[in-house]
UniProtKB/TrEMBL annotation:
InterPro entries: CoA-transferase_III_domain (IPR050483), CoA-Trfase_fam_III (IPR003673), CoA-Trfase_III_dom3_sf (IPR044855), CoA-Trfase_III_dom_1_sf (IPR023606). It comes from Nocardiopsis gilva YIM 90087. This is CoA transferase. Keywords: Transferase. PANTHER family: SUCCINATE--HYDROXYMETHYLGLUTARATE COA-TRANSFERASE. Coiled coil: none annotated.
Length: 432
């Protein structure tokens, strides 16, 4: 945008000065833009003035009336809540896109063109724009415009067929993994296109789909299927081509052991005090162990059951054998923090108050959203929290901004933490 964000300051963050018009909603697009915001980009999240992003209502659980789902992928953004059916509201968003370095959207095919927010229209005003379209099944997929939800794509991509116990039904991954993978692919592609734009001045239209992100994520399984001409079988918590590489029961909890080569296997046998397993020719090499998987796993499981998990983890780590305890989500977060991984960052939310959030999976010393620096990350915005200031930055005079808010074409959130007495479990009295 031509007018800088008054909240911004000169910064060494990697994406400082990059402005993103985020027209996406739910998970894949918002996750991508949150990662970019973590690296210093200015992200303006465009939302419906009445309901906002779909995930704002995806609770419980709630924190100060805000859905935990929404909070998980919208850190570091500003919220502009405008009605795209209003002529002036639509014009404001068109202007926003014309002044942005990046536009990202996941509207249904056809809708974005009717709004005049498609790549061709925006690029005519903004030739250097990096424009990212996210869809379920891609622009060439038949039937055209097929809806793509994570659950559907997990099924259609083979991810579900590859997940689950060998003698059980296919199973989805515990989170919307294809959305997360799509968000990561979108962020990577945007960064590449931004680099090209900075060196050539040329913009680009990026297409990212859940189905292609999911298929590419299956890596060795897709290659195995192409090489053999057959579907890879399910192995549950085991590995298809490495043994032992799976979850094992102990006296009190499951642990995972990853003996990925022959040397690690022999170290494992030493810790287990099972020299017979190390010397047995049936288990001498990894191909041998794969061929005799059932017998070996049975022997290892029987030995591990005699001691509790913490003892085995300590012994195996000391011997250099990769091992981990199967943990619940909260236990995993606290364990990572206790081990010094700095997995959590703190933000001060205007309604929910002090809040912990999970950092991005990468660390940059120059980016407060990814590493511990002296710059705090912005919390996920309230619906319409920044509508008036963004509209003013776009050049609208104060009387027009006020008129838009008055007639409902825009929504400006004015409540504070004292405006609601929301129970964090029930989500009652959520300000909207």
């Amino acid at each position: 945008m031509d007018t800088p964000n008054p909240q911004s300051a000169p910064s060494a963050q990697p994406l400082a000065g990059v402005r993103i018009a985020d027209l996406s909603r739910v998970l894949a697009g918002p996750y991508a833009t949150m990662l970019l915001a973590d690296m210093g980009a200015e992200v303006i999240k465009v939302e419906h003035p009445g309901r906002g992003d779909d995930t704002r209502s995806w609770g419980p659980p709630w924190a100060g009336g805000e859905a935990a789902y929404y909070l998980s992928v919208n850190r570091g953004k500003r919220s502009l809540a405008v009605d795209l059916k209003d002529e002036e509201g639509l014009a404001a968003v068109q202007d926003l896109c014309a002044r942005a370095d990046v536009v990202i959207q996941n509207f249904r095919p056809g809708v974005i063109e009717r709004l005049g927010l498609d790549y061709a229209t925006i690029a005519a005003r903004n030739p250097g724009v990096v424009y990212c379209s996210i869809t379920g099944f891609g622009p060439e997929h038949e039937p055209e415009g097929r809806p793509g939800f994570d659950l559907i794509v997990q099924a259609e991509s083979g991810l579900m067929a590859a997940t689950g116990e060998p003698d059980g039904p296919p199973s989805k991954v515990g989170v919307a993994m294809t959305d997360v993978l799509t968000g990561l692919n979108a962020a990577v592609a945007i960064l590449g296109a931004l680099l090209r734009a900075r060196t050539t001045g040329a913009g680009e239209h990026i297409s990212v789909s859940l189905i292609n992100a999911a298929l590419s994520s299956l890596v060795n399984l897709t290659q195995q299927a192409l090489v053999t001409g057959a579907d890879p079988p399910r192995y549950g918590n085991a590995h298809s081509t490495i043994v032992p590489y799976q979850a094992f029961p102990t006296a009190d909890a499951d642990i995972v052991i990853a003996a990925g080569n022959d040397a690690l296997y022999r170290k494992l046998c030493a810790v287990l005090n099972r020299p017979d397993l190390a010397d047995d020719p049936r288990y001498a090499t990894n191909p041998d162990r794969v061929a005799h998987r059932a017998e070996l796993v049975g022997e290892i499981s029987a030995t591990l059951r005699v001691r509790p998990s913490e003892e085995w983890v300590k012994l195996l780590l000391a011997a250099g054998v990769p091992v981990g305890k199967v943990r619940g989500v909260l236990d995993a977060i606290r364990s990572a923090e206790a081990a010094g991984d700095d997995a959590v960052l703190g933000v001060e939310h205007p309604v929910a108050g002090p809040m912990e959030q999970i950092r991005a999976g990468f660390r940059l010393e120059s980016a407060p959203g990814t590493a511990a620096t002296d710059g705090p990350a912005l919390p996920p915005p309230l619906l319409g929290q920044h509508s008036a200031e963004v509209l003013r930055e776009l050049g609208l005079p104060e009387e027009r901004v006020e008129a838009m808010i008055e007639r409902g074409a825009a929504y400006q959130h004015t409540s504070t933490a004292t405006d609601t007495d929301t129970d964090t479990d029930t989500g009652k009295d959520v300000p909207r």
